[in-house]
Structure prediction request, 214 residues.
Amino acid sequence: MVVGGESSGEGSLHILADVSFSVNPGETVAIVGSSGSGKSTLLGLLAGLDVPSAGRVVIDGQDLFALDEDGRAALRGRSMGFVFQSFQLLPGLTALENVMLPLELAGVGDAAALARDHLDSVGLATRTGHRPDQLSGGEQQRVALARAFAVSPRILLADEPTGNLDAHTGGQIIDLMFEMNRRQGASLVIVTHDPALAGRCGRQLRLEAGRLVA
Prediction:
């Protein structure tokens, strides 16, 4: 199936083509390949943030692109968690407030108590009142992990989650991410250049020039 046509000023540019795979509940999958191979585009399609020119993304039996934008946002809110290379924390909010945000959007009661529990689980019980600029890179990514897992997602999508961290801190984040994934049983799909991170996954999907080759 074709899952990534994008229009350009000179016509249609196919970023991804003939990409077809499934991810089982609780499975860990790494998407690897050189820069420009389409990894981040694929992740954007899996999240419903980008819209393909053809093809489907089906999550729990629901075709993501049969939904309108509000429907896709609602599905993301109840089924997906996200971790990014650049952390994507809201700078004006504390660590606690950043983790509370998806819980409040999902209408979960006692969001503050749940957010504190999740921050405690990533070792940040004493940093709840700190804003992102008062936290180290590793601490910011721990907040991002707590936020991602706060709503107990069915699938976690991670884009280069160790890309802005040194090797030691990145290793700690990898260990923590897989431990949290094991506890919650979510499917984990990771875009990464990090061979250590890819090697921790149960399966690797390699993209070359927008096509799945392995």
Remarks:
- The beta strands are 5-8, 11-14, 28-32, 58-59, 62-63, 80-84, 155-159, 187-191, 203-208, 211-212.
